[in-house]
Amino acid sequence: MLPLLHLKIASFNNTMGKCRKSLIGFPILLHTLCLLLFPQPLLSQENSFVRQPAGQRIITPHERTHSDPQQVHVSLVGKDKMRVSWISEDKKGKSVVEYGRNAGEYSEKAIGESGSYQYFFYSSGKIHNVVIGPLEPGTTYFYRCGGLGPEYSFKTPPPTLPIEFVIVGDLGQTEWTASTLKHVDSSEYDVLLLPGDLSYADTQQPLWDSFGRLVEPYASKRPWMVTEGNHEIESFPIVYPQGFKAYNARWPMPFRESGSTSNLYYSFEVASTHVIMLGSYIDFHPHSQQYSWLQSDIATIDRVRTPWVIALLHAPWYNTNEAHQGEGESMRQAMEHLLYHANVDLVFAGHVHAYERFTRIYDNQADSCGPIYITIGDGGNREGLALKFKNPASPLSLYREASFGHGRLRIVNDTHAYWSWHRNNDNDADVADGAWIESLSNSKACTKAPDQQNSSKEEL
Ligand SMILES: *[C@@H]1O[C@H](CO)[C@@H](O)[C@H](O)[C@H]1NC(C)=O
Ligand SMILES: *[C@@H]1O[C@H](CO)[C@@H](O)[C@H](O)[C@H]1NC(C)=O
Ligand SMILES: [Fe+2]
């Protein structure tokens, strides 16, 4: 944890100096002071490149009663369970979920737990988490939270392929976010994967609540599986040195089920796919807990059970945009060989507010046994787009564009998947970029024993 702390203190000093890099550790008072001293838009100048105007922030008000559940979202837990998470302003709200297969008829009931957190002068509402199940796959369930309020419904993922993942990073809560979510919702999918940067609350805690209300219509209908980005850190020297207070309280993921000891990295399996969620902002070096967890998680992968293996993380390991150059490099150097030897099919990242698809790569070279790298940090946050790509284009980069949008990975069968990128400006039927992908589990040439692999390197 020490290196992380240094990082934060450095950024704190920087904050005091220039009001820049304010994404890390930034309480309200300082924020206000900074605004008075430097009345330029905060958080928009991580680098000197020029960005297309961002959408206006949308504040989603609380329009229900004090005791009604709000900010409802669901996530997968183990093979056949779902966690239902919500917040009630009323501290007497009960942590109970009633559910069943018919609207208005709740044959089942489960009790969970609740908590809350404090961040400087802000106290959260009562945060409820209830795990329900066992549930049937591919089935619609109707449910109600806390014994009152509106009815919700979700569909559980299919038991076998095909399955469709939506992948979108750096979501935020702007007009562009709303447009992205509308596109996401306009065609069927099973599970949403988010490689970090959710609310862009940046320590202003009520914005976490607003974000929860904005995404509720979507995140209460399909499981949302997330990992953390830099905007989730919200650490502050001495008071909140560990960071991730709001994120861990509001977006608990099933980390224990995969042997992880931290909500900041975990894995899960759904319909023939092993999904590895990594943490870019927690120690990843070879002596770290995350590193040894990843080693043991990889050892559990059975390519007969899950012919597909994908990984998500926030700061991209490969990136030809001028924004955030090199920020994922030390993690790449620490962990790339583990994913490579595990024959991971695809690695998704966010952080850079643009879309970019690479060829299969290992150690900066095209390698037909390496993962395909995709940056999908174009969800719609208030910082706007990262418009400048480096030139000349690297031959490793196959498609790059700074537009808001989302991606879809439709895994058709054990060997084939179709990846598509959907730009917000188009109607959802138009696919701006798309490619068929073959699973590496199907490739005899790529069957590698750990640390004695025989890669088929091609120079480009
Ligand atoms: C898997 O899907 C691909 C693409 O649709 C198809 O070409 C291939 O024949 C399928 N494989 C099997 C075993 O069905
Ligand atoms: C790698 O491939 C070469 C040639 O195909 C072969 O001679 C060698 O034994 C292989 N090495 C390993 C470790 O499999
Ligand atoms: Fe980020």
From TrEMBL:
Q: Please write the reaction equations for the catalytic activity of this protein.
A: a phosphate monoester + H2O = an alcohol + phosphate
Q: Where is the Purple acid phosphatase N-terminal domain?
A: 69-156
Q: Cross-referenced CDD domains, in alphabetical order?
A: FN3, MPP_PAPs
Q: Which domain of life is it from?
A: Eukaryota
Pfam families named in the record: Metallophos (PF00149), Metallophos_C (PF14008), Pur_ac_phosph_N (PF16656)
Purple acid phosphatase C-terminal domain location is 370-427
Q: Which GO terms describe its molecular function?
A: acid phosphatase activity; metal ion binding
The cofactor required is: Zn(2+); Fe cation
What family does the Swiss-Prot or TrEMBL record give for this protein?
Belongs to the metallophosphoesterase superfamily. Purple acid phosphatase family.
User: What's the name of the protein?
Assistant: Purple acid phosphatase
